[in-house]
Specification:
Layout (H helix, E strand, L loop, with lengths): L3 E5 L4 E4 L10 E5 L9 E5 L3 E9 L10 E8 L4 E7 L3 E2 L3 E7 L6 E7 L3 E6 L15 H18 L10 H13 L1
Antiparallel strand pairs: 1-2, 1-5, 3-4, 5-10, 6-7, 6-11, 7-9, 8-9, 9-10
């Protein structure tokens, strides 16, 4: 009997029937295969899924890696899956389906991934890669702090006292000075 593992963004899993077709609908209805639960079926919105593991197997010995490319699948929850994939991804209306061969070539996983769970699929030159300089641990707080300082500088000026704009009063004072 066909069987798929539904992996949710919150870490839960569900064993059930594989999706009947590609991810062409925003929801999947499935019978539940989990033992020990009271569930017999599930109505699963794609927005709650990370991916559906359709199959996991050993690769055939005659795998020609020239047909494949290195990819890194980045999810919105910061998990990254790396592996070899065919050069053509099979996208549908709400997601993508692909076969992913592990970097050590020990396993092939067939995955259906909703677009809502993806940050992006990146094509890699090599398995070793440097971290981007903008990925420092404190870069977001530093940027926010700098923006806040700039906003305070605009609002209060260099002296730190609030500048109140009173154009009418300032024009009257200016005219009096000119008249004197």
């Amino acid at each position: 009997m066909a069987h798929a593992i539904y992996c949710f963004l919150d870490g839960e899993t569900l064993h059930g029937d594989p999706p009947r077709r590609e991810l062409d609908s925003p929801v999947i209805e499935t019978r539940v295969h989990n033992v020990g639960t009271n569930n017999r079926g599930a109505f699963v919105p794609l927005s709650s899924l990370k991916y559906v593991l359709l199959d996991s197997r050993s690769p055939s010995p005659e795998v020609d890696l020239q047909r494949y490319q290195r990819i890194a699948i980045h999810f919105v929850d910061h998990e990254v899956l790396r592996g070899y994939s065919e050069r053509e991804l099979h996208s549908s209306r709400y997601g993508v389906t692909l076969s992913l061969i592990s970097p050590d070539r020990s396993e092939v996983k067939d995955l259906s991934i909703p677009f809502t769970a993806l940050k992006g699929i990146f094509y890699l030159k090599t398995w070793e890669g440097g971290e981007s300089p903008t990925l420092e641990a404190d870069w977001v707080p530093r940027i926010l702090e700098e923006r806040e300082r700039e906003q305070v500088r605009r609002q209060y000026g260099a002296t730190g006292n609030p500048r109140r704009r009173m154009p009418l009063l300032e024009r009257i004072i200016r005219r009096r000075r000119i008249a004197e």
